[in-house]
Every structure is written in structure tokens, then in C-alpha cells.
Amino acid sequence: MRLNCTVNGEPRQADDVWAGESLLYVLRERLGLPGSKNACEQGECGSCTVYMDGTPVCACLVAAGQAEGRDVVTVEGLADGPVQQAFLAAGAVQCGFCTPGLVVAVHDLLARDSAPTDPEIREALAGNLCRCTGYEKILDAVRIAAAS
Amino acid sequence: MTTVETQVISGVGTSPKRPDGGLKVRGEFAFSSDLWADDMLWGATLRSPHPHARIRGIDITAAVALPGVYAVLTQEDVPGAKRYGLEIADQPVLAMDEVRYQGEPVAVVAADHPETARRAAARIAVDYEVLPAVTEASLGVLLRHVPVRAGDPAAKADVVVTGEYQVGMQDQAFLGPESGLAVPAEDGGIDLYVATQWLHVDQKQVAECLGLPADKVRLSLAGVGGAFGAREDLSMQVHASLLALHTGRPVKMVYGREESFFGHVHRHPAKMWYEHGATRDGKLVYVKAKIVLDGGAYASSSTAVAANAATLGIGPYEVPNVVMDASVYYTNNPPCGAMRGFGAVQACFAYESQMDKLALELGLDPVEVRLRNAMTTGSRMPTGQIVEGPAPVASLLTRVRSFPPPPSSSGDLREMPGGVSNTTHGEGVVRGIGYGIGIKNVAFSEGFDDYATARVRLEVIGGEPAVLVHTAAAEVGQGLVTVQAQIARTELGVERVTVATADTSVGSAAPPSPPRQTTRTGAAVGAARQAVRTELLARVGGARLDGGKVLSESGTVVADLAASIGDEPIEKTVEWRHRPTYPLDPVTGQGNAHVQYAFAAHRATVDVDLDLGLVRVVEIVTAQDVGKAVNPLAVEGQIHGGTAQGLGLALMEEIQIVDGVVRNPSFTDYLIPTILDMPPMKVDILEMADPHSPYGLRGVGEPPTISSTPAIVAAIRAATGKALTRVPVRPEHIVE
């Protein structure tokens, strides 16, 4: 099938998409946007988090056809701003595989709540797994980004 | 005359930002699963559904017939060695006449779409004769037995405590799945871009299996999404290379999460029997222990894991009389091998549980009984080896104990056991505190020639002195690239440092497990730097380097650094070896088997819902001696991450196996800690320089994984009074 959607502000088209493909697969393998990561493929880890019509979703759980006509923003489409800089400053990046999904999730959190408490941060990021950091520096990063 | 006082601002002991960090936060860093080549095919693997079966025949006809399929290969298509392995070449590239574990690779497929490749693999008809599976280690074939004997085996004591303990099978659960891209080369060789921990050992094994000379198998490190030991063994390397050579096209293989659970080795499950004898004032007289490890179907690094369990298995304590037997067996369970902590994790849960039991028996404080037996510099290990480096065991314990206790519960549901499941508002919740301390060897042991190679080039680029560092060491997330650059800056006083992508065109580097990548490769980089520096100083008759100038002994400027280099770059390649280690005596276990020892201590505070058996960890305090914190931010990150993996083992992480079949190969069913499971972590870093190590470095990554598990379980025991002899602790263990 042919898929048309807006990705990072640009109209994009993908041809010969198999109906079983996920939005994640289309982004990574057909549209040249591998920033969203493929760590669990069942919506547990949040590494593939993207915005769809302004709502963060796991791109692995969105069938490609469901993205038809929708507005998708990936980590590559976010302005390099306070969230990304805070992750670097806090030492919240180790292997970095979870980082793109977390950057999108934190971006969304701070857009909704500019000064979240620690329990609110934890609740908002509960769908993003990280295996390297134990999350301590990620909390630091959110606090830094919120303060900037 | 000018005296230069400029300091190099991002050398050893500072926390500059990671050079790969910017790419990672923007989603631009190329992980191994992100690689792409024109005309590339996708590989898929057919795996055995049975833990043990004879293969009567394989029919690939239906798979080959599927449109879009370019190759279907079985063991007959493996041109070189049919088996490989880290220590013993016992694991088939593709199954031959028999499969020995569920998930063993049987055939591989290349197709133009990953789904086509998977469907083709499903069409391969394998005629299995199912055989009985050995799923209990003690019934398996012995792979290695490591005895350690010290003092009087018949020693008697006034107070004796015994216990039987179990550790479940833990998974490394790195987020970036096994993946890579194999590109056939014009010379008949292969260029392999892969996420691995040890390029040169991969290269050797891949070349042997492909029947190619090593120089025709060129490996480059692709972005690594975590490792924790799980990338020491081969996964898709040979398979993708076979498919690429067979089809003449680049082949990408990316495991999904379920396949990843079958694609790498796990932490050895253990059963452990311990008997501790002590005087009435709490001094240990003897320890007798038997440790049985399930090695699974193939050897991997099992023999080294057993040696660690045996030699480190009484913990960081002075014990005059020891009878220790650690054994690892082949079974038809998934193969087990390297995971952060590597043999020391399992034993630490047992010996620390025993120390708590002893404290209870004697009516002593748990920290006090540990302090009375704490090893120090000069202590004798049960192997006879003298601990020469710093061993601040008592100091680490008193440090974690002296932290103020965490505040009592705020009443926020999200901070209750059960969280927003709304299972309690505080009723039935009891707080407990527990302690744990562990010991770990750093670097490979028992005579293994564990060397690291680094090439350093000092040149002038654009009028500025610049350094290029090239090693084969794997950046797996721990921050090695940053640290290599920091060491370069420190040695040469040059800010502009580039670290080249790790590949096999330079000599081998130590793999990042046991944790020593910083130590070994950092040492090699430091030594190469020194060699460059020595030549440069000799060239212009200077005594030291600072701020881009060559200085005399008295600090006067002899020459400008860039001018001294001129058109003649200086390049040095150095192999760095740690001091030699020796094999263990096969009967007594005596021998100087380890290079260096590292220690960490934890204090855990938990809240337990006694009615439901739910646990919330409130706080974890870690004290660790790191020798020298080359990059303090990265050191803290290692300690946090290691502690979190220990929390996972204590409370939730286990690959559940029934009759040799894995029941939970997904992140829905195999749980790793989320940000809601992790408590605030406080870290106290000691820097007691190691006399045998450059910059005083000591491995950082493993110790925090070792003692957080027993500390958390001790805290749950303190809250519940339950014996809790198995990890992970489940609600039913608390409520029963």
C-alpha cells in the first residue's frame, strides 16, 4: 500500500508498504529516520516514542496504515533545545538507546507541566525503560531542563 | 621568558560531556540496528523449539521457493570450523545432528524484507526426534569444578549457621538488540559492522568459521546499545557473514526482543550451600560452601564464572579455614556466561545472607559482625593471594551506615508499595534496613593474557596540535570514548583529541567485562601517550608539556608544541599488560589468580506491604572505592546503573524456565526496573589509588551490581522476619 503522512513538518510518502509494518518500521527503514529505536516491539520500553497528532505514542504499536494522513514528529524533528542539553549536562546518556524515546517523553512532560515534582517525573517516564543509568541522572536531566 | 600556567581543563578527574552524546540526544547516533546499505538483504534465524532433540533431517524446499528469498543456509553451508566458543569451541554455528537448548540456531535465511525472511524461516521443515532434557544442574555433565582449600578443613566453632540459597537466571536485557551489517568485499572477505564487546575475539572466531584468513574478516564497532556481558559471545556475526558471502549482497540482521532472549548467554542460576562457624564474639573461624552453577548447553565463559564464584565466594572477609567447591555443569537450559558481576554476584547473595544470619544468632548488629571480619590490605584470600591494593571494607561499611536515614513515607501513593495500584495507604507497611558488601576481581584471571593495544598520533592540524587515538576497545555506553580522550589530554596537554572508531585494524583491546576497559585500554592509551611525549621532548630537549608549550625543568618555554611537531607527526603503538596472574592449583585452589580486587557496600531501605508481599525500595546508599574517578559523572552513572541491575535481581528479574523452555522472553514478562521501581540513590566515592594501575584506576562497573541484591533482601528480612533464601524475592515468599 501507499502511505502518506506528515513527518517532522514535511509531507512524506512511502510505497509498497506491507500492511503488517509498524509506523516504527516505516520511519526507520523507509523514510530514513532511524532515531526512534526498536528495543521491545511491544510498547513496553518507550524507545520508539514519537508524537502523532501531538500525542506521544509508541511507534512500534501503530500500524503503518493508522498513520495515514497524520502528523508525526520524531526525535529528529525536535529542536535541539533544553531537554537534549540537559541530558548531556546531567550525564543521563550512557549507551543512548533509550535516549531518543526519553527525549520525546520529557519534551512532552515539560510541555504539559513546566515544573513537575519528582513523583510526577517518575510517573510520566514510567513507560521508558533504561538499562544503563538506574534513572538517577535522567531525573537530574528533567530537573535541569525544567529549570532552564 | 614566559612561565605557562594554563591547565588542561578536561583531563583525568573531570567530567567533560561525552563526544557521542550530542548525536545520541538528537537521534543521530548510528547504532548497529540503524545500519543500512544499498541493495541490502535481511537475515533471519530459525531456532529450535526443543531444549533437546536429534535432527533427523532439514527440508528447505518451501523456504527457498518463497519469492524474495535469496538464501537458506544450514550447517552444511558453514565452510570453516563448525563450532566456536570463548573458552571451548563447543557451540555449533548452526545445529548439526542435535539441538541442545531451546532457541539454538538451526538455519538462516536472507530475504528482501525482514518479514519475508521470518516467514521463509518458518517454512523450513526440521524433522526433530525429541529427547529427554537435562534441566537440573546437578544432573548434568560437569564442565568445571574449582576447589579452594585453606587452613584446617575440620576446624570447629562455637557458633554455626547454615543456609541454602538460590539465585535465578538473570538477563542482561540491554536495550539495543543484537544486530549488525555484513558487507561482502571484493577480495572475497567480509566487512562486518557489529555491536560487540570484543572485536578481536569476534574476528578470530568469525574467520575460523568462515574458513577465511583473519585479515579478510574486518570488524568495525557499530553503535552498541548496552552490553553488560551479553556481547562477549558471538550472536549474529557468523550468520550474517555467511549469508552475505553466499548472496554477494550486504545482509543486515536485527534480533527482536524475543529472539534477543535466545540470542545471548545469561547469568548462571546458582544453588549454594553455606556453613559459617564463628567464635562467640563474632570472629569467623571457618566457611564451608558448595556452589552449583547451571552452565546451560554450551561452555561460553562458564569456567571463569565458576572460578570467580570459588575464589571470591566467602566475600571480603578474613577466614582462616575454608572448604569451598564451586562447580558448573552442562544442561539443556539456555547457555549462561558473562553478565556484570560474573560469578561474584551469586556467591555474594549467599555469603551476605549468612553474615546476617550469624549476626542474628550472635545478637550483633549486622554491620558490626562484618566489621569484625573485614579484610584489609595485607589480608590473605582463601587462595593464598595477599590483597596488596587498598581494601577499605570497614570504611565502606561505616560510610553507608553513617548516611542519615531516608525520610518516612510522604503518603504519596506513588511512593507506597504497589504504587498507584492503590493497594495500601500505609496500613500493613513496615520499613526495613539492610546492608551488603561484595568483592570482585578486576580484569581476566588465572593467567589469561589480557592486553590492550592503543595507537596514538600527535600532529599539527590547522596550526594546532591534535591527537588521534585509535584502539579496538568497545564503547558500550560506559563512556570509554570520553575517558580515552581525557587520558590523552592529561598526558599531552592537548585539548583537541579525536578518538577513532574501534576496529580490528589495530591490536586487541580488553573487552569491557570484567570491568577494566577504562583500566586496561586507558593504560594502553596512557602508555602510548607517554611514548609520544617522550619522543617529542627528546626531539626539542624539553622536560614537560603544558598549555601547548614545551617547557624546561624550571618551567621556561623551550618551544611551541605545534612548532615542535612541525611536519613530522609522532605515532606510537603500545601494548599494555597488567601484571601477570597464575592458574589455581587444581586440588587446593591456591594461586595468585587475580590482578586486582574491588569493593562496594550498599545500604538499602525498603517499605514492605506485609499483607500483599509488595516491596518498594525507598533508598539505596552505595559506597565504593574506585581508585581514581577519571570521569566522576560517568563513575556515578556506572554505580547507579549497576545498583539498579542488582535491585532487579533482588525483586523482579528472572528468566523463568520450565522443562528447558523459556516462559517469559519479552519485556512484558521479563521485568526490569522502571523509573518507578528505582529509589533515590546516594553515592559515596572513595579514591584510594591502586599501586599497580595507571592513574590508580580500578574497575568500576561490576561491584555495585554485586552487593545491592543482598542489601535489599536483608532489608526485606528486617521488615518481615522471613528467611528469604532465593532471589528474586516474590510476593508469595513474603506472604506465605
- Total number of helices of chain A: 5
What Rg of chain A do the Cα atoms give?
Answer: 15 Å
| CATH second-level architecture of the largest domain in chain A | Roll
Number of domains of chain B: 3
> What is the global morphology of chain B?
globular
| Number of individual domains of chain A | 2
Describe the structure.
The complex is a heterodimer of chains A (148) and B (736). Helix content of chain A is 34%, strand content 14%. Chain A is built from five helices and five strands, in the order ββαβββαααα. The longest helix of chain A is centred in the last third of the chain and has 14 residues. Chain A is elongated. In chain A, a hairpin with a 2-residue loop joins β1 and β2. By secondary structure, chain A is α+β, with helices and mostly antiparallel strands. Chain A has two domains: 75 residues, Beta-grasp domain (Ubiquitin-like (UB roll), Roll); 66 residues, Orthogonal Bundle (DNA polymerase, domain 1), CATH 1.10.150. Chain B is an alpha+beta fold. In chain B, a hairpin with a 2-residue loop joins β19 and β20. Chain B has three domains: 137 residues, Aldehyde oxidase/xanthine dehydrogenase, molybdopterin binding domain (Aldehyde Oxidoreductase, domain 4, 2-Layer Sandwich); 182 residues, Alpha-Beta Complex (Aldehyde Oxidoreductase, domain 3), CATH 3.90.1170.50; 328 residues, Aldehyde Oxidoreductase, domain 4, CATH 3.30.365. In chain B, 24% of the residues lie in helices and 27% in strands. Chain B is built from 16 helices and 31 strands. Chain B is globular and about 70 Å long. At the A-B interface, α2, α3, α4 and α5 of A face α1 and α14 of B.
